[in-house]
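Exercise: predict the structure of this protein bound to flavin mononucleotide.
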Amino acid sequence: MSARLSPETHPLTARIDLAAPLDRKGYEAAGGYRALRKAVKEMAPGDITKLVKDSNLRGRGGAGFPTGVKWGLVPMGPDAGRKYLVCNADEMEPGTFKDRLLMEGDPHQLVEGMIVAGYALQATRGYIFLRGEYVLAAERLNRAIAEAQAAGYLGKNILGSPWSYELFVHTGAGRYICGEETALLNSLEGKRANPRAKPPFPQIAGLWGRPTVVNNVETLCNVPHIVQNGAAWFHGLSQGKSKDAGTKLYGVSGRVKRPGCWELPFGATAREIVEEHAGGLQDGLKLKCWLPGGASTDFLLPEHLDLAMDFDTIAKAGSRLGTGLITVVDDRQNLLAVLRNLEEFFARESCGWCTPCRDGLPWTEKLLAALMRGEGRPGDLEALEQMTRFLGPGRTFCAHAPGAMEPLQSALKYFRAEFEAGIARPPAQAAA
Amino acid sequence: MSHDRVLKLSDLPPAQPFVLHDEDRAAIEHEIARYEDPRAASIEALKIVQKRHGWVPDGAIAVIGQVLGIPASDVEGVATFYNLIFRRPVGRHVIKVCDSVSCFLTGFEEVFAALQRRLGVGPGQTTADGRFTLLPICCLGACDKGPVLMIDDDTHGNLRAADVEKLLERYP
Amino acid sequence: MATIHIDGKPYEVEADDNLLHACLSLGFDLPYFCWHPALGSVGACRQCAVKQFRDENDRQGRIVMSCMTPATDGTFLSIDDPEARAFRAGVIEYLMTNHPHDCPVCEEGGHCHLQDMTVMTGHVARRYRFTKRTHLNQYLGPFVNHEMNRCIACYRCVRYYKDYAGGTDLGVFGTAANVYFGRETDGVLESEFAGNLTEVCPTGVFTDKTHGEHYTRKWDLQFAPSVCQHCALGCNVSPGERYGEIRRIENRYNGSVNHYFLCDRGRFGYGFVNRKDRPRRALARRDGERRAVAPGEALAHAANLLKSARRAIGIGSPRASLEANFALRALVGAENFFDGHAALEGALVARAVQILRQGQVRIPSLRVMEHADAVLVLGEDVTNTAPRIALALRQAARGKQAALAAERHIPAWQAAALADIGQQQKNPIFVATVDATRIDDLAVETLREAPDNLARLGFAVAHAIDPNAPAVAGLAAPLAAAAQRIAQTLLAAERPLVVSGTGCGSACVLEAAANVACALKARGKKVELALAVPEVNSIGAALLQPADAAAHDLEHALQLLASGAADVAVVLENDLYRRAPRTRVEAALKNARLIVLDHQMTATAEAAEVVLPAGSFAEDDGTVVNHEGRAQRYFQVYDPTYYDAGAAVRPGWAWLMDLRAQLHQIAPDWGHFDAVTAATAQAFPELARIVEAAPNARFRLRGLRIAREPHRYSGRTAMRAHLSVHEPRAPQDPDSALAYSMEGHHGYEAGERPAALTPYAWAPGWNSPQAWNKFQAEVGGHLRTGDAGVRLFEPLAHSTSQGYFARVPEAFVPQPGVWRHVPLWHIYGSEEQSARAAPVAELAPKPYVALNPADAQTLGVGENMLLDVSLPGTALRLPLKLKPALPRGLVGLPAGLAGMPYVAPGTAVQLSRVNVA
Ligand SMILES: Cc1cc2nc3c(=O)[nH]c(=O)nc-3n(C[C@H](O)[C@H](O)[C@H](O)COP(=O)(O)O)c2cc1C
Ligand code: SF4
Ligand code: FES
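Solution:
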């Protein structure tokens, strides 16, 4: 990431320096913590929530839920008691590598986002739930928090206001399911990361039974900029390319020339991202299909490359924007092998709570492995199709298994012939 | 044969009374203060013990339970849920190889095969000299540098099978 | 109420139920696993899917989990929807991928919820063709067997064991398709309620190990409606028999008493019935030698003894039925009848009966105790004396979670949400006892005091609540402060409960507890008072003594014998050595001749001239009265002569009736059991309603008796083939409306079969204990025909001024060199009958002596060192157990253990260290 980006067009990444992120002084010199001052000194908590609502900031964790609306559900007022803000920094969705960049490259930005959002919610404590493998991010965030504390941005009576707030980094110990926000809360409470039923929603009864908001790293990093520059400015960032406002961290992995992650106006097309920014596929390879935003999104085809990468457009095409980081599958790949790899991941990462996910995913993986070896049997495709229904939304306890079914159902739709080829032909006459 | 060189259950050190190091106890107690409920420190407590011992010895489970005031069965439930907590001895260095989709697309299988050949162990196993444990792990959030692996706390990307030998040399 | 539409038809249901609960209560068959009426919903198994529609015009609908969906007014749903049905069958198919399909060798087979649900969903063909995961099993102790491969991961076991029963040593480990339910390491499950896992687990992971050792399928067992014999709570049980042995005890649902759960003593303590050393023939002494004789000869011998007696007395028993005790009383006359309680025990039970009779406060059933919102436990170690109360108190404590959730409009069945919202919060429970208890983890405050000081605390609490209650002079400051806290907490509650009992051997403690309850009532509180008493029929036996009768305890009886005033004693199901010091009993028996009726070869029976083999609860009908004054009937499970024609085992009342007839040369007057019950009821107005405890022997349903055997009972023509190839006529039962047969009325016709005559739970398609759904008015609630048993006492509407006890004891002060004895109770070992069951004996402690460590230090002894314990008339040498919670100046001795002599509570004891040479 180059330091020459303009904060006007690249608010999230202009300050990023992976080798030596800005310390508090540097961050302040680059305009940091002004939003915090403005929020605490000039704005009521409700004003900020309203501003975030007006900005149409949608969650960057994958589901795209409007952030301001989520905040609006939290009980406010002097009797609301203890409340929590939790940053979802579990980033484990295969193919996703944006939050790491934000945390390693500009830790103060997330810290400021956590404080401003905490103020809007009048939270008493914030936790950054960071996946255990992000050792460098943990170190840098902890340093940033200590610096912020020393500057009076955290702790008692922040900037002379009546509001007090503490911020902690909590590091995990693995397991993708911790990214699911209610499983995350259980994990944060030191329990097994099984998700919780909703309702009650975390905003009403979350961490330790108290009102809690869970937001993604990228979501929270946007907040100070919105407070600083306003909702209209935020809408303008997407340059009319999309109804969705702001910029988005997009990226590409797979066999492209320049894999990476870039902050672009919301609604940039997949073609622009894959071909211009990532330099297109490596020499000799052709695009077979792509996942728009992580392992739990439906495959799209080369013909979908001109779609705007925003929530509604990608949904209309039959997939999900997800995290917005594209995974490219080239024409040399055995699609069944790729799928098997994906389903092995989901089977292994199932929390083991609900039946269809716990027992259906390993079965799915084994069916795919059999097909891959040419040992499929008649009925296997129907079994897989049934799997996509029985592990679908509403059938399982949380969105993990439905996520796992997205690549499978789209692959069955687009590449059925490759599945059929995996079914062992019975010895010609013996069967007849 | 490679499986002869693999640590077996019977090779595990006999269960010894576990003594929690004073520093570790202090560290766990410090963690407890960050939460509403001591239970929330359970994962961190396991990590603290693991840092010292390389893994979480059996006896540590009950001791951690006592420090946090929760049943040992809860501690074990947590310890066996999370894949970064090791309930068996591991090597001096733990190699965690990302096997998720982006690394899979960019050459995970060759690198993983090279590692297995070089170490003579399969996934989840430890070399007989106790130097390396080889684990597959899910997406490490460095998909643009696939294939990626971590050895201890260091992340290494853009690997080729040929790089394996040299890389391992850096971890005596 | 709410109207919901199921497959096009409207139904009225409770609005605060979930749809699964509502559908089951309406009688629909809807499969489920993770949900349990006592455990609530968590939505894990996904088995209970139905289709829900937005309104009557919605044709699309969406699949929802019925257990997680509230039954709101105007809900439209379909159970029958093809998509919902297909999904439910699919869930079974998933659950079965790793299941070993080992039904033929599985102990759960035939009463397996998984089997039932598999059939219900119609899943028949297996498609999964890959390797199954396998697990190692664990040793979990003598009660519960573990076979993890059968697990379907419904999470019920951990939810029951940890959340419901408060156990800590069973957990879930691993993730994904490799979740494991067990202990951290092999070992005996610590919870006293672990046995319920065998019914909570919907498949064969946790099964009854004692049953496995002499296994019989449920459909091959003969059952009877019965009442647990191992404490005074009267939990309802279904003992199952085959080949003349009890093979297992299952919980028998009673919506007011035990509902779904028993304690392990009750479930696994049945082995005494099967003991080979039981007296099965009549014995009589001839020429100094005792041998088996024909029943008639034994009766004649006994009658001669009685005839020639100067004065014959009858010693009854709190572990025998009302009818047997009454028959003894009829034999010897009221003035010669003793209810068989030990001296102090009798006084304590009499005090409990007095409190019942006075009716100042209500005595709650177990179920009612679960709804208390503040509890004072005074003096009683309930886990060890009345175990099921401990489980009920846990639910009382947990009630706080539901209350907090209700504030946020979360219904009580949302089990996980309740725990998340409630976190550690509990309703307040104070545990004031002599020693640490197994419910201390529930307590907001624990207090450890000598019995007299506990009583003083209780009196002080009562006084703090109502100044009209007697005050306590000179109460130590810490106790006075505690009394204030307790009083305030109880006053702040809506449904306060006081729990006490006879366990610590102090009448003052009982009186203090009663004062607290009366004081709360005087302050307008809806208060309950639960009093634990020692034995299954302690209350019943004591009720056979009129209120104004002089003490008729064992001590008086022994005095009569020792002095020679009486020279013959008829002892009914009572081992005197358990109730008086050996020297005392021996002195009494030296000149007396003994006729003993019992089903166990006790030390007393060994000393008898005539032994008449009485039936145990499994071979006898009887009425017993539990702690709350609820009269309940148990019935013969099997006829002991069916496999052993020579067996002379007969109900105690029948022996006594015949003995009386022989003695007076009359015809046996009662003839059958109902007549004894009726005679008892007639003789004691308080007991008038015991005849209503169950329908009598003339009762028929559609002209049929009620079958004790399931309709699939097999092998009847072959089971006696080793004795004779001729199949005898099935035994006839003149004493009840039950038949020893699979012929008769059985299964379920909702609303027809009286609860007291329901031998086991079965309904079409429901072979597991979950079949109780079909017997309940609302699932998890009361039985359709009313819960079994009649309460003999109901409280007065208003308190009266004469309510308070006034005898405040002096404070206990430790005295140098003298230790005051307190009994320490053990769930396994202290109760006589269950202690004779091998798996219970295995868990019973060895005799020991317990001291506070500081006291031990003054004697220069440490843990496990031997101490000489000298009691009046007895000397013992016992290893020391240090009990830090035990107050100084007290010495604890395990009560009732085999190998321990009787020690009266409060005895002064001398201790000295054993000097090892
Ligand atoms: C299986 C699963 C894994 C998830 N992992 C993550 C994750 O790693 N990071 C994240 O921000 N959100 C993740 N989510 C989404 C969160 O549940 C939640 O929607 C998000 O944190 C909300 O933040 P946002 O509103 O700011 O997007 C995951 C969801 C599921 C179902
Ligand atoms: S869908 Fe999977 S991850 Fe989610 S609750 Fe069910 S088992 Fe757990
Ligand atoms: S019973 Fe409803 S999900 Fe298990």
